[in-house]
Amino acid sequence: MEEVVPFRVDIRQVFDLPVVRMEVTQHEREIKRCPECRLVQLAEFPFYVTNHVQYGPVITSLILYWNHAQLIPCERVTEMVNT
Asked: What is the distance of C-alpha 17 from the center of its chain?
């Protein structure tokens, strides 16, 4: 049948989302002491990094959307984020 020309082609499409994985970005800053005056200098973290461990802006927006726009209770949103 490889030599036979098809008279019609059926098409099927499947739409799906890729698997979502948590991405962790580690920010480091150097802390140095001036050998002359002994003053300690700290490099700056990005403005949105305010805690040692925190959620980023994308997942924070998603959590707020689920809770406020979709009215999913906090307990359920917590379950979804922790899985």
From this structure: 15
Q: Please list the alpha-helical segments (H only) found in the chain.
A: 57-64, 74-82
11-70 pLDDT, tens digit per residue, is: 999 999 898 888 999 999 999 999 999 999 999 999 999 999 999 999 999 999 999 999
Q: Are 31 and 42 in contact (CB under 8 A)?
A: yes
Q: How many CB atoms lie within 10 A of CB 23?
A: 8
pTM exceeds 0.90:
no
Q: Where are the domains of the chain?
A: 50-83
Residues ≥6 apart with Cβ < 8 Å to 29: 42, 43, 44, 45
Helix axes 74-82, 57-64, angle to 10 degrees: 140
Whole-angstrom distance, CA of residue 83 vs CA of residue 81: 6
